[in-house]
Amino acid sequence: MSKLSIFFAVCAVVCQSEALKLPDYITPCSRKDPNFNECALKHGREAIPRLLKGDPKYGVPVLDPMYVPEVSVEESGIKITARNFTIEGARNATLQDFRVDFDKLIVSIQFMAPQLDFRGKYELSGKLVSLPIIGKGDFNSTFRGLIAKYETQCNFTKKADGKTYLMPLDYEMEFEPEFVRIYFGNLFNGNKLLGDAMNSFIAENWRLVLDQIGKPAYRALGMIVHQILVQVANKVPYDELFSDTD
Ligand SMILES: *[C@@H]1O[C@H](CO)[C@@H](O)[C@H](O)[C@H]1NC(C)=O
Ligand SMILES: *[C@@H]1O[C@H](CO)[C@@H](O)[C@H](O)[C@H]1NC(C)=O
Ligand SMILES: *[C@@H]1O[C@H](CO)[C@@H](O)[C@H](O)[C@H]1NC(C)=O
Ligand SMILES: *[C@@H]1O[C@H](CO)[C@@H](O)[C@H](O)[C@H]1NC(C)=O
């Protein structure tokens, strides 16, 4: 059983939209190109550094560092909320794969991030890998050698301007980190002895810990990719996303 709620300031819903062309730093590919995926990967690699800096015209916020107001998860006996946190390091990630399934309207993107740093506020209570835990304060976490796979199901939507837009729906993430460090400050109402013991336990058992409470981190990371796709697809009509015209 898992309950996951996230709140992101995605402007897709509130921003007034007007059809735009692709930004000039994104070179479109042709849907008729038999090597479409290779073309998308090449041009995606070129565009990402620029996109991560944010592009207000397209509603893309600064994504490195990315600011996340709140993510929370309640799962297998623990409730954890992370607030006001940043994720830094996406600029060093390498795009490894970019695929579009035009029949099923599924977009899949794989990337490798050498290092991602999370830093912000947290609150948690419950049982972590069967140990009672409670805390509220600052946290930081570092993911190294992370391979991540993002996948989103899309749909078409017709807007008031009569044009058809691609609409990325929800997304799924798969992750394989080489090494993860997580540190929670002020555990057990600031009891240093208990807090240090718990942080050592977490350091030694990070894979188990991540299996239980990693979901909000994964959701938040996926949001970096998702925000780019949602915002661009919301501003640029479907046909304008490609170089072929029909
Ligand atoms: C998060 O930041 C907002 C705005 O800076 C602030 O109002 C709020 O109190 C902060 N929340 C936490 C939990 O620190
Ligand atoms: C990105 O990589 C450069 C060069 O290896 C390194 O100096 C820098 O600290 C990295 N930045 C982040 C945010 O990880
Ligand atoms: C994480 O927080 C702890 C405690 O405040 C601190 O000792 C450590 O240097 C922090 N790590 C990073 C990468 O900021
Ligand atoms: C996609 O849109 C169509 C028509 O609006 C709708 O019937 C269908 O349920 C949607 N598919 C998904 C996966 O949301």
TrEMBL record:
Q: Which GO terms describe its biological process?
A: circadian rhythm
Q: Can you name this protein?
A: Protein takeout
Q: Which UniProt keywords apply?
A: Biological rhythms, Signal
Which Pfam family, any one, appears in the UniProt record?
Answer: JHBP
SMART domains, per database record: JHBP
Q: Where is the signal peptide?
A: 1-19
Q: Report the superkingdom from the record.
A: Eukaryota
What family is this?
Answer: Belongs to the TO family.
- Whether Thylakoid counts among this entry's keywords is no
